[in-house]
Write a structure and sequence with these properties.
The protein is built from 22 helices and 18 strands. With about 525 residues, it is an alpha/beta fold. About 45% of the residues are buried.
Length: about 525
C-alpha cells in the first residue's frame, strides 16, 4: 500500500480540530513534500522525521513522499504533528499497520525519542470531543492526557516503541539508550508555596472585610493608599479565601496552563484558584495574550477562575488597562490575528493597587507630598472611567497605627474567613443555580432589578444616588451585586438597607481628585 493515514490535532487557542495526515509514496526521484499550509516549525519536521526514522531503524522510502495535512485550507503550526507525519509515512511504506483512528501527539528528537508538547490537555479534549478517544503521546505527557475523561491514552518513549506497538518488526528497530530517555521530561511544576495567611495583616479591618466580600461574590477590587500600608499583602491573600475549583472550571484552568504555562507539565487538575501578578512594565501581549501566528494566552487568561493583581496600576500602559474591559464584562478574550482568531477564557477577579500620587505621600494630611494637582491627575488618568466603573469595590487603605502593628499575627486567620466565604458561595449556588450563574458578580442586571430586586425601602439611598447622577446604570447594578454578597455573608435572605449602604460605601471613588 502506497498511502498511509493518521490523525493529529490543530489547536487555535483552546479550540482544536482533527487534522487528517495523508502520506503517499510515488514512483519518482527522492523528495519529501509537505502540503496543507504548514508554518516554519512544521516545515522543519521533514528533516526531523527523516533523521528520527533512520535512527529508529525504519528509514523512510527513498522515493518521493508527499504528505498532506487536511483540511488543506487551514494553517497548521508547531512540531506536534511530527509523530503523526512519520507514522503516516511508515504506514504508506507498509512498515506499520493498524493505526486506525489513533491521534498521534508528540515531537520527534533526531535520535527517535518522543518529546513532550505544550497544550496536550486541550488537544486530547478536542480529540475525544471529535470521536477520536485513542491517543498516543510522549511519556512525560501521559498523566496530563489521562486527565481527560473518556480518553484511551498510550504513552511511548521513542518512535521505535510506537512502531513496535503498531506492527513493526522488532528485529529491525533501534531503541535510544535508556540513560538518555529520561531527558525528555518537561520539568515538573515546583511544589506550591504556602498560601499567605490573612492573620499576618495588622489592622485594616475595613480592607479585610472588603477582601471577604470580594471573595464571597467574585468582585473586582481597587485599593489606593500610601506605600507600606498593606495593599500587596491583602491582594496576595485573596486566593487563600477562595474555594477550590469544581471539575469543569478546574479543567478549563488546567487547559490554559497546559497551553500557556511556564514549561511545567500538568500531572493533575489545578484545583486552587491561580494568582497572576504581572510587572507594570508588561506589554499588552504579555497581559492580554499574543505572539507570532496564533496568539498564546497572557496573564489575564492564566488568571482564569483566580486573581489578576496589578500592583502600581497607574504605571501600566493605558491601552493595557483598557484592554481588560472586554474580559471584565464577558469573561473571555477574543484575539484576532491574520493567522486566525483565538478565544481564551478570562473570568478572573481583578485587583488593582495604587499609591495616592506619584510620590505616594498624599495620604492623610499630605503635607509631605510634593506632587502638583496636574501630576496627580496625569498619574490616575490611565485608570479610565470605563475601567473603574467595572470595579465593584473601591476603598482607601490608610497607614496602620503602632497598636495595630504590635498586634500583627493575632487577627482572624484565612481559614476562618474562607469558611464564611464557602457558606456564602453555597447560598449563591442555591439561589442562582437555575439562572446558570455561580456567583453574584455574574448575575445579569435585568435579574437584579427584577426577580432579585430588594425591597424599595432598602434601595432608597441607591435610588437617590442614581437620581443625582453620581452613579451610572452599570454602577447601580454592581452595587446590588455587592449588596447581595454582603447579605450572603450575614445570612440574610435579601439585602436590607444596611447591606446596600455598605455596598454603596465601597463604591466610592478612592482616586483622589
Amino acid at each position: 500500500m502506497s498511502l498511509g493515514r493518521t490523525y493529529g490535532i490543530g489547536l487555535i487557542g483552546l479550540e482544536g480540530r482533527i487534522v487528517e495526515v495523508e502520506a503517499d509514496i510515488g514512483q519518482s526521484l527522492p523528495a519529501f513534500i509537505l502540503l496543507g499550509l504548514p508554518d516554519a516549525s512544521l516545515n522543519e519536521s521533514r528533516d526531523r522525521v527523516k533523521s528520527a526514522a533512520k535512527n529508529a531503524g525504519l528509514p523512510l522510502s527513498r522515493r518521493k513522499i508527499t504528505v498532506n495535512l487536511m483540511p488543506a485550507d487551514v494553517h497548521k503550526r508547531g512540531s506536534g504533528f511530527d509523530l503523526a507525519i512519520v507514522m503516516a509515512a511508515l504506514a504508506a511504506a507498509g512498515d506499520v499497520r493498524g493505526t486506525g483512528r489513533t491521534v498521534f501527539l508528540a515531537e520527534l528528537g533526531l535520535d527517535g525519542r518522543l518529546r513532550p508538547l505544550r497544550g496536550v490537555l486541550p488537544a486530547v479534549m478536542a480529540a475525544v470531543d471529535a470521536g477520536f478517544p485513542d491517543v498516543a503521546v510522549a511519556e512525560p505527557n501521559a498523566s496530563e492526557a489521562a486527565l481527560v475523561p473518556g480518553a484511551r491514552v498510550r504513552a511511548f518513549g521513542s518512535l521505535a516503541a510506537v512502531a513496535l506497538a503498531y506492527g513493526a518488526r522488532a528485529d529491525q528497530l533501534v531503541f535510544p539508550p535508556a540513560d538518555d530517555a529520561g531527558d525528555t521530561d518537561i520539568p515538573e511544576s515546583p511544589s506550591a508555596a504556602a498560601v499567605p495567611d490573612l492573620a499576618d495583616i495588622a489592622g485594616q479591618d475595613e480592607a479585610r472585610f472588603a477582601l471577604e466580600v470580594a471573595a464571597a461574590g467574585a468582585h473586582h477590587l481597587l485599593m489606593t493608599g500610601p506605600p507600606g500600608a498593606g495593599k500587596t499583602m491583602l491582594a496576595e491573600r485573596l486566593p487563600g479565601l477562595l474555594p477550590d475549583l469544581a471539575d469543569t472550571p478546574a479543567m478549563e484552568v488546567t487547559a490554559v496552563h497546559s497551553l500557556g504555562g511556564r514549561g511545567a507539565s500538568c500531572t493533575s487538575l489545578i484545583r486552587r484558584p491561580p494568582f497572576e501578578s504581572p510587572h507594570h512594565t508588561a506589554t499588552a501581549a504579555a497581559v492580554i495574550g499574543g505572539g507570532n501566528g496564533i496568539p498564546r494566552p497572557g496573564a489575564a487568561s492564566r488568571a482564569h477562575r483566580g486573581v489578576l493583581f496589578l500592583d502600581e496600576a497607574p504605571e501600566f500602559e493605558g491601552r493595557v488597562l483598557d484592554a481588560l474591559r472586554q474580559p471584565l464584562e464577558n469573561g473571555q478574550l477574543v484575539l484576532h490575528r491574520a493567522a486566525g482568531t483565538a478565544v481564551y477564557p478570562a473570568r478572573f477577579q481583578l485587583v488593582l493597587a495604587a499609591n495616592p500620587c506619584p510620590c505616594g505621600l498624599a495620604s492623610g494630611k499630605g503635607t509631605e507630598c510634593t506632587c502638583t494637582p496636574q501630576q496627580r491627575r496625569r498619574y490616575f488618568s490611565r485608570l479610565s472611567g470605563p475601567l473603574l466603573d467595572r470595579v465593584d469595590l473601591q476603598l482607601e487603605i490608610r497607614r496602620i497605627s503602632l497598636q495595630d502593628f504590635a498586634a500583627a499575627g493575632t487577627a482572624e486567620p484565612s481559614e476562618a474567613v474562607a469558611g464564611r466565604v464557602a457558606q456564602a458561595r453555597e447560598r449563591q449556588a442555591d439561589r442562582l443555580g437555575q439562572l446558570g450563574c455561580e456567583t453574584n458578580s455574574e448575575v445579569p442586571g435585568t435579574v437584579l432589578r427584577g426577580a432579585l430586586r430588594p425591597a424599595r425601602s432598602s434601595t432608597a439611598a441607591l435610588d437617590r444616588a442614581m437620581d443625582r447622577q453620581t452613579l451610572t446604570a452599570r454602577g447601580y447594578d454592581r452595587v446590588l451585586r455587592v449588596a447581595w454578597s454582603v447579605a450572603d455573608l450575614a445570612g440574610h435572605d435579601s439585602p436590607d438597607a444596611d447591606d446596600i449602604g455598605q455596598a454603596l460605601g465601597f463604591r466610592q471613588q478612592a482616586v483622589a481628585a
